[in-house]
Specification:
This is Citrate/tricarballylate utilization protein. The protein is about 70% helix and about 0% strand. By secondary structure, the chain is an all-alpha fold. The protein has one domain. The protein is elongated.
């Protein structure tokens, strides 16, 4: 990891530890105040606990022009991004995609090209609906590795993270407590449940919490849609296409709507926010990835709506190309933050349990 980023975050954390004005703002400060000194692993853990709600920055009396020049949300955001890049495997890809929106756009174009080429080369041996364009076996051959290989990469990264932050043997209570906080997006409600200062320093808002929830639950519903279709296909011998009121369609449409509107809302909030209170270098990569994720939802909805028209083959290639790009980039983009933040919450729950 970059030593200068860790050192600057440590300097600011030590000042915050002496001040303690922001105690109770979010899960960062109880964890910060539990230490008298901070190892590199401690700083990495604090960085991944931080949700960049910015309340501490706007409440702080030691920001510029004070000589302490504190900007803890930005310092932790830089360490957080550096930690994802350091723990990612293979590492060079993460350092490219986390900060370069153009690289994500290029990957998307390549994803489209690969799917158009696959459709042209493999075609279909016969089938209904989407399978009339690309066979089921061909889809499985393309997307199974595209899903499993990034999953392996994430597991490798999380194991490295867990080791460096001092993680120990887990209990069920550690895991359930962390999942509960993540499901409620509790830290995005800030200390007293008023919300973030993400959009405007003088205004508390639940907007960022709500769009985060829309994206998270939209993604989970889309994943559930694909999973239910897989069960119907292999267990009940009910291949696609499915009716409008079938489980895969209902889950997919609701998930696609949440994902599309959630990502649009997140982009709007980021464009209104003060960039210098976050990781400036990662802004372009963040916007590009959120746009990609929203496009996955939007193209899926378009495919649902126009699946029985002559536009279906082109829409299928576009949607599957976006999904393929999303899967392959998952360990190397902002998507990784969900896995690392959940792991940080589990480690924090463990810290609380062991300190009792």
């Amino acid at each position: 990891m970059q030593v200068d980023l860790i050192q600057e975050a440590r300097r600011q954390a030590e000042i915050c530890n002496a001040c303690r004005y922001c105690e109770g703002y979010c899960s960062v400060f109880p964890s910060l105040h539990a230490n008298r000194s901070f190892s590199d692993g401690d700083i990495t853990q604090l960085a991944n606990l931080c949700h960049n709600c910015r309340g501490c920055y706007y409440a702080c009396q030691y920001t510029a022009p004070h000589e302490f020049d504190l900007n803890l949300p930005a310092a932790l955001a830089e360490v957080r991004r550096d930690s994802w890049e350091t723990y990612a495997w293979p590492q060079p890809l993460a350092r490219r995609f986390n900060t370069h929106g153009a690289a994500i756009a290029l990957a998307l174009v390549l994803g489209f090209a690969l799917l158009f080429a696959a459709i042209k080369a493999l075609g279909s041996a016969g089938g209904e609906g989407f399978y009339a364009v690309l066979s089921h076996n061909a889809m499985v051959a393309i997307f199974a590795p595209a899903f499993l290989l990034p999953l392996v990469s994430i597991v490798i990264g999380l194991r490295r993270y867990w080791r460096d932050v001092g993680g120990q043997r887990l209990t069920l209570a550690d895991i359930t407590g962390a999942f509960g906080r993540a499901a409620r997006m509790q830290d995005l409600a800030a200390g007293h449940g008023e919300g973030c200062n993400f959009e405007d320093e003088d205004r508390f808002s639940q907007g960022r919490r709500h769009v985060h929830q829309a994206i998270m639950y939209g993604f989970l519903l889309c994943f559930a849609s694909t999973s239910s279709a897989t069960v119907l296909h292999y267990v009940f011998d009910m291949p696609a296409p499915y009716a409008l009121f079938s489980l895969p369609k209902l889950l997919g449409i609701s998930g696609g709507l949440l994902l599309t509107f959630g990502c649009a809302g997140m982009v709007a909030l980021k464009l209104k926010s003060d960039r210098h209170v976050g990781d400036v270098k990662a802004f372009g990569g963040d916007i590009a990835f959120i746009t990609l994720l929203g496009f996955v939802g939007l193209s899926g909805l378009a495919l649902y709506a126009l699946g029985s028209t002559p536009a279906m083959p082109a829409l299928l290639a576009i949607h599957l190309g976006a999904v393929l790009t999303f899967f392959l980039l998952t360990p190397f983009t902002k998507m990784a933050h969900g896995f690392f933040r959940l792991t940080a919450l589990i480690r924090d729950a463990q810290r609380k349990r062991l300190s009792q």
